[in-house]
Structures are given as structure tokens and as C-alpha cells.
């Protein structure tokens, strides 16, 4: 046996790569190159274009565009809407995921379908629904007007539209995770005398914390970048109901290209911060 090993080693050392291995290597590098080209064309090039156009006229113009009162108002409103919509959707997502995965009841599949609905419906249609419900000519419009309550063309309408398009993210992240974990740990906690809140905070939450944070990050990213639904309900009032995406559109339509790309670069910065935080969470979860 000892004499066979060197012979086998010498054969392996001098052997040529098989045609099948060569073909696999060729396919692998072809696919990698195609993927790289697609990413370069669809993601890297647009990002570089945004930064290039934003700084095209120099730092003075760039800083002036970002310090403009309308831009600052749009930034504040974007962050405010995200600060309201994301926590509310987080609470809803946790409750929905808990209900769907821990209990059996009639209509469970209907609830899952409703959670998926914003993924199937255009955001513009979602915004139009709120106009038809809360607008001046909508179902509750006359009553809201009599009470001097403004929802459409005001911050509450923007928050509602943002919540509509973002509320599936936390729930859809948690449902498969909680289904995989099952209910054994919760049932064991019940037998030991734990109450509902104790079970959630000490058993369920530690098991889902990374999935929950990941869902929150996705929800926040979509909330800050939402355009279609918000555009329908905002009214495009400068300094009042314009979020950053709407502010970018208005500047671009007014041929203020440098200011428009400067505002877009701010959105890009927020997206990159969100992405870095997501990657940090992913590495933290792996290790």
C-alpha cells in the first residue's frame, strides 16, 4: 500500500485537467462576468452618475443645494415619516408573525395574503386608495373636513401611504423564521409558569432578534425611498409635504439638475448607511 501512494500522487501531479472540469471553469467565469456586467450597468454606473452630476458644479453649489430650506424640510419630513411608520409596522409585523405562527385559526391564509398585498399592488394605487377614503370627496372626507382634520395633502396621509407600502417587510421576515423555530420553547415556558409577556421577552424575542432587526432595516430603507404612494397623497407642497424623493423630482423637472442630484446623493448616503448596518448585522448573526 505504501508503494501505491507515491504512484497515485505522481499521476495526480502530472494529470491534465479533464474536459468536464475545463467546461465547468469556463461556465463559472462566464456567469461571473455576466453578473459583474449587469451590476456595473444597473447599479454601479447610476450611482457614479449621481455623484458625478451632484458635484459637477463644485462643492459650493452642492452644499448650497443641501442647505436649501426646502431640502432641509424634505429631509426632516422623510426622517419623521420613517420614524413613525417603521416602529408602527414593527409592532404590527411582530404581532402578525406571532399570531400566524403560534396559533391555528380560521382565516389564517387570508391574513397572510393581505400581508402580501402591498407587494402585488402598485404604490400609486395604494396612494389613490387613501385619497378615495380620506380625500375631500372620499368616504370620510366630509366628516374630516367638518372636524378640521387633514389627512390627504398632509403628514398623516404621507405616513399612512408609507405604512401601506412597508408593512409587509417585518412580518415576512419573521414568519418563516418563527415557523422554523416552532412552539416547543414557548410551550415549555408555559409549563414552568411563564406569562405571555415573559414568554415573548425571554424566549421568543432572543430567538428572532436578528431577523427582526433585518426586517426593520428593510422597512426603513423602503420608507425613506418611497415615491409613488407618497406622491399621490402629498400634494407636493414645498416645505410642507415634500419628502426627499419628491424634492428630487421637482428640482429635476425645473431643470435644476445639480441641486436635484445633490438631493439624490443624500438619499444615496442614507441608503449606504442602511446597507452597511445590514451587512454588520449579517456578520454579527453569522459569528
Automatic annotation (TrEMBL):
Q: Can you say what this protein is called?
A: Sulfate ABC transporter permease subunit CysW
Q: Which UniProt keywords apply?
A: Membrane, Sulfate transport, Transmembrane, Transmembrane helix, Transport
Tell me where in or outside the cell this protein is found: Membrane
Is Membrane there in the keyword field? yes
* Residue spans crossing the bilayer: 31-51, 71-98, 110-131, 151-171, 212-237, 257-277
Topological relation to the membrane, as annotated? Multi-pass membrane protein
Q: InterPro entries annotated for this entry? A: CysW_permease, MetI-like, MetI-like_sf, Sulph_transpt2
What interactions and quaternary structure are annotated? The complex is composed of two ATP-binding proteins (CysA), two transmembrane proteins (CysT and CysW) and a solute-binding protein (CysP).
- What sequence ranges are listed for the domain ABC transmembrane type-1? 75-278
Amino acid at each position: 500500500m505504501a508503494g501505491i501512494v507515491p504512484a497515485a500522487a505522481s499521476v495526480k501531479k502530472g494529470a491534465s485537467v479533464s474536459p468536464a472540469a475545463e467546461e465547468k471553469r469556463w461556465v463559472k467565469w462566464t456567469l461571473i462576468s455576466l453578473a459583474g456586467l449587469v451590476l456595473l450597468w444597473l447599479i454601479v454606473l447610476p450611482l457614479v452618475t449621481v455623484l458625478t452630476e451632484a458635484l459637477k458644479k463644485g462643492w459650493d453649489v452642492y452644499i448650497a443645494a443641501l442647505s436649501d430650506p426646502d431640502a432641509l424640510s424634505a429631509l426632516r419630513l422623510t426622517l419623521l415619516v420613517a420614524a413613525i411608520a417603521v416602529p408602527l409596522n414593527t409592532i404590527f409585523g411582530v404581532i402578525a408573525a406571532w399570531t400566524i405562527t403560534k396559533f391555528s385559526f380560521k382565516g389564517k391564509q387570508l391574513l397572510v395574503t393581505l400581508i402580501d398585498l402591498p407587494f402585488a399592488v402598485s404604490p400609486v394605487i395604494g396612494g389613490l386608495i387613501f385619497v378615495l377614503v380620506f380625500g375631500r370627496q372620499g368616504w370620510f372626507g366630509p366628516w374630516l373636513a367638518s372636524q378640521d382634520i387633514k389627512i390627504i395633502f398632509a403628514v398623516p396621509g404621507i405616513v399612512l401611504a408609507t405604512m401601506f407600502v412597508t408593512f409587509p417587510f417585518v412580518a415576512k421576515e419573521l414568519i418563516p423564521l418563527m415557523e422554523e423555530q416552532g412552539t416547543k420553547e414557548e410551550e415549555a415556558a408555559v409549563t414552568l409558569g411563564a406569562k405571555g409577556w415573559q414568554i415573548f421577552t425571554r424566549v421568543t424575542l432572543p430567538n428572532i432578534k436578528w431577523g427582526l432587526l433585518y426586517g426593520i432595516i428593510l422597512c426603513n430603507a423602503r420608507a425613506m425611498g418611497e415615491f409613488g404612494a407618497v406622491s399621490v397623497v402629498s400634494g407636493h407642497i414645498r416645505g410642507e409635504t415634500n419628502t426627499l424623493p419628491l424634492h428630487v423630482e421637482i428640482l429635476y423637472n425645473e431643470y435644476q439638475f445639480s441641486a436635484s442630484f445633490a438631493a439624490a446623493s443624500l438619499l444615496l448616503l442614507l441608503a449606504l448607511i442602511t446597507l452597511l448596518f445590514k451587512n454588520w448585522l449579517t456578520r454579527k448573526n453569522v459569528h
